[in-house]
Amino acid sequence: MQFAVAQEAFSGPLGLLLELIEKQELEITKVSLAKVAEEYLLHLEAHEVPGDELADFLLVASRLIYLKSRELMPYLRLDEEEDSADKLQDQLRLYREYAAAARELEERYLKTRMFTRPFVKTKQVQQVAFVPATNVTAEGMRELYQSILKRLQPFFALQEASMERTKSVEERLEELTEALRSKAAMSFKEVIHGAQSKMEVVVSFLALLELLRRRAVHAEQLGAFSDIQLKRIV
Amino acid sequence: MQNVIANVEACLFVATKPVALKELVKATGVSEAEVSAAIAELTQLRNVESSGIHIISLDGTVQLVSSPACSETVGRIAKDELAPELTRPSLEALTIIAYRGPVTKPEIEAIRGVNCSLILRNLLMRGLIEEKDDAKRMQAVYTLSADALRFLGLHAKEELPDYTTLHANAHIDKLLVAVMTSSSVGEGMAETP
User: Fold this and answer.
1) Can you give the pLDDT at residue A50?
2) Cβ-count burial of A142 within 10 angstroms (0-12 exposed, 13-18 middle, 19+ buried)?
3) B-chain residues within 8 Å CB-CB of A91?
4) Which of A23-37, A92-106, A197-211 has the highest mean pLDDT?
């Protein structure tokens, strides 16, 4: 039988990671993950990663870099990231089970395949014509189409919300810059005065953060939840 | 009973493709329990070394196929059906679907740690997997096709090595839940337009 399973350098980010760990005969632990971090990055540098998989490869890379940095600076620990390190471990263990099963299936694939009789058409003259199924009705199609639209709704809602936000952060940024140009100092309460929604307040705050990052404004807050005083930096 | 067995076998012989249990009930005119019993008996009768014709069962369908033991011989005269080649990534996705099916795309991606849109489309096009809509989960689920089962030389999914361990195992279920709950590798990837 022909060789049906084509060999590839590695199979996704977890495949690469598992290969590196197994090559060094290590168990799957956080320590061994940190150990192979450098090799993983070197591999990424040396090999072309398909575009649609790049983000997944980089995500694993970022987790490895975090693990490595934590090994170097053990006092820097965040609970949230502890969780993500655990997860990478779990995910790799889960992947290992199925990667092993895939190797077994590779051994079987086409080795003892079963055949069926090919479908033989009777000697009929084939006529090409539009023959709608008897259960197709206009009303049925309308319902089907509506249910499809309904299923797409969450997706569109998501897109709209994110577009709205990016647009308005930029707008707010311009408005704030403009306001600060005419008035050298103001408070955040003034900025959000007249805001229509919670979202608008959040957007204003994001715009303020961006101004701070650009060092266009100086902000001072005396305590938690107290008003923020803004001063223009000339 | 003998009559039902013979009728079921004759139907399967003529159909040349996987036949749903329901279709056999309709054709034979006997109850589903009787058809199921006939299939079970036929399977016992046929799936032996001395029979050149075997029965495969998958997700409520049955099909007549050649015996896996005759693979080489039959391969010499039946050269027309090309079996698709598999790359390592597609083999992995196929394995996950074989063991865990019906399984959703996010679950497959959580296990493989990488976006699988292209691979799934490819496996679908080559007829190795099937896509169904799962109304409860509100998304598509993937299962192994009867063709894939034949290419692997298996009579049923349960013959996959370590099927019980990898199909529904508490340890694996727990790992999958842990991996799926927060943002995992391979998740949140943009769908290729």
Assistant:
1) 79
2) exposed
3) 110-111, 113, 175, 179, 184-185
4) A92-106
Three-state secondary structure readout of chain B: CHHHHHHHHHHHHHHCCCEEHHHHHHHHCCCHHHHHHHHHHHHHHHCCCCCCEEEEEECCEEEEEECHHHHHHHHHHCCCCCCCCEEHHHHHHHHHHHHHCCEEHHHHHHHHCCCCHHHHHHHHHCCCEEEEEECCCCEEEEEECHHHHHHCCCCCHHHCCCHHHHHCCHHHHHHHHHHHHCCCCCCCCCCCC
Is the model more confident about B187 or about B103? B103
CB pairs A-B closer than 8 Å? 173
ipTM value: 0.83
Between helix B105-112 and helix B117-125 the angle, nearest 10°, is 120
pLDDT given at position A26: 87
Min Cα separation B85/chain A (Å): 5
Residues 78-117 of B with CB under 8 A from A: 78, 80-81, 83-89, 91-92, 94-96, 98-99, 110-115, 117
Is B71 in Cβ contact with A113 (below 8 Å)? yes
In angstroms, the separation between the Cα of residue B23 and the nearest Cα of chain A is 18
